Amino acid sequence: MRIALFPGSFDPITIGHFDILQRAKTMFDRIYVGIGKNSSKQCMFTLEERMAFLHTCFEGDAQISITQYEGLTVNYCKQIEAQFILRGLRSDTDFEYEKNIAQINKEVVPEVETLFMVCSPAYSAVSSTIVKDIKRNGGDISRYIPKPLIGII
Ligand code: ADP
Q: How far apart are the first and last CA of the chain?
């Protein structure tokens, strides 16, 4: 069974994350979407809210499991028996950042491979940060979030 962990803050999940997950479903038997609780990032939405958004997006989808974890991502992979960490790439900045983490993770736990998926061109400018900025300023975020969340976030 091919199991992947898609880790992130998901503050909130965007159409870009959603797109990566839909495309990744052809490659894995199960994907855990995991909110890492050790992030030093200041979040706009609480952990409970972010988990609820994810549950709403993937309700009834047997291939996707929503979860949260503390500590090192690679250690959590061992716990859930995930052989892969899935990450999305939007730019060369994402790549440089992700490459370092992937290389260190490989040293720490060699049996876990990090796989990158290049984002769809339509979503390369979409980020949780932009969604939050628009939301804070009273703008319309509906085109940047998964359909099931329109009117909820
Ligand atoms: P983190 O705090 O770990 O960066 P995020 O929730 O911001 O978590 O992102 C989780 C993953 O989704 C990362 O691999 C990130 O590069 C990817 N991602 C973010 N936005 C997009 C997008 N628009 N298209 C594709 N991948 C994306």
A: 34
DSSP state of 71: S
Would the pTM of this model clear 0.90, i.e. be above it?
A: yes
The secondary structure element, H or E, covering residue 89 is: strand 84-89
Residue 27 alpha carbon to ligand 1 centre in Å: 19
Residue 128 annotated among the catalytic residues of the structure: yes
Q: What is the DSSP letter of 3?
A: E
Please give the number of the atom of ligand 1 that sits closest to the Cα of 128. Answer: 7
Q: What does the pLDDT profile of the chain (153 residues) look like in tens digits?
A: 999 999 999 999 999 999 999 999 999 999 999 999 975 788 999 999 999 999 999 999 999 999 999 999 999 999 999 999 999 999 999 999 999 999 999 999 999 999 999 999 999 999 999 999 999 999 999 999 999 999 999
Atom of ligand 1 nearest to the CA of 94: 16
Q: Is 16 in the pocket of ligand 1 (CB under 6 A)?
A: yes
Residue labelled with tokens 């796989």: 115
Query: Regarding the domain delimited by 3-149, which CATH topology (the fold level of the hierarchy) does it fall under?
Result: Rossmann fold (3.40.50)
Pocket test of ligand 1: the residue of 37, 87, 93, 141 to mutate, having most ligand atoms within 8 Å of its CB, is 87
Residue 41 a catalytic site member = yes
